[in-house]
């Protein structure tokens, strides 16, 4: 199963957008992500609907941040992307009447729900502004020596 990288990719895009002067076109973002502008527009639409981005059509248009990066958390972006599946592993549903399967699914399902709650709670504590400042620190270290 291929990993869903939309969250990481959108966080990356948002930090670049913060550093860009003016709106960023879907075409430019598509080149950055090696994808199609239609995919970009579809993905970014959820962020716009939640009020994190604005978009303007036509010449000189594009996508722009509607809030500061400090006001947007990783969880906000995750939710705007439609809450993609967090884990590739899951429970079996081959034979719901099997008591062994029921016992296994109860334990695994509970552990997965608990882990997902913890992860999403942590995502809610991390702003994209923090990621941008970490990037700035890393960039300064790279250029300093």
UniProtKB/TrEMBL annotation:
Gene Ontology MF, one: DNA-binding transcription factor activity
Top-level taxon: Bacteria
Protein's name according to its UniProt entry: Transcriptional regulator
PROSITE patterns named in the record: HTH_RRF2_2
One Gene Ontology cellular component annotation held by this UniProt entry: cytosol
InterPro entries xref list: Tscrpt_reg_Rrf2, WH-like_DNA-bd_sf, WH_DNA-bd_sf
Gene3D superfamilies: Winged helix-like DNA-binding domain superfamily/Winged helix DNA-binding domain
Organism: Phenylobacterium deserti
């Amino acid at each position: 199963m291929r990993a869903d990288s939309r969250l990481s990719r959108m966080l990356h895009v948002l930090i670049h957008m913060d550093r860009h002067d003016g709106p960023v076109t879907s075409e430019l973002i598509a080149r950055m992500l090696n994808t199609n502008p239609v995919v970009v527009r579809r993905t970014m639409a959820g962020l716009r609907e939640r009020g994190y981005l604005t978009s303007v059509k036509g010449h000189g248009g594009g996508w722009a941040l509607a809030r500061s990066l400090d006001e947007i958390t990783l969880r906000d972006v995750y939710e705007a992307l439609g809450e993609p599946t967090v884990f590739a592993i899951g429970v079996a549903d081959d034979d719901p009447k099997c008591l062994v399967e029921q016992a296994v699914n109860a334990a695994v399902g509970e552990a997965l729900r608990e882990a997902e709650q913890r992860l999403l709670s942590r995502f809610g504590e991390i702003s994209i502004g923090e990621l941008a400042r970490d990037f700035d620190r890393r960039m300064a270290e790279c250029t300093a020596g």
